[in-house]
Write the structure tokens for this entry.
Amino acid sequence: MSVKLLVLYPTPTDVQKFDRRYEREHLPMGKENLLGATGLASYHILGSPAGKSPFARLTEVSFPSMKALQECAALPGAQKTMANAVEISTGGAPHFLIVEEEN
């Protein structure tokens, strides 16, 4: 059973600055520090069926199990990466969700 950490970023106060920091600083940090992750995907949110979305970005980090996610989250590098997510999210605190894939 795989699990994913989803991070939803609210629309930032300065989209270009956020995108620059996210792409140049945050994503490389995540790729380096999220040990045990089996995948990392990043999405621009274009909108919602109701119109404008309150979120600008979604990051999806895949893990083979909840145990692997928990072990990763306990590491200093992962904690640094999560703190960086909060720091760069100028539109408000990011939303962190853990989801389980159902078969």
User: Anything to note?
Assistant: The helical segments are 15-33, 66-73, 76-88. The beta strands are 3-10, 39-44, 55-63, 95-100. The two ends are 9 Å apart (CA to CA).
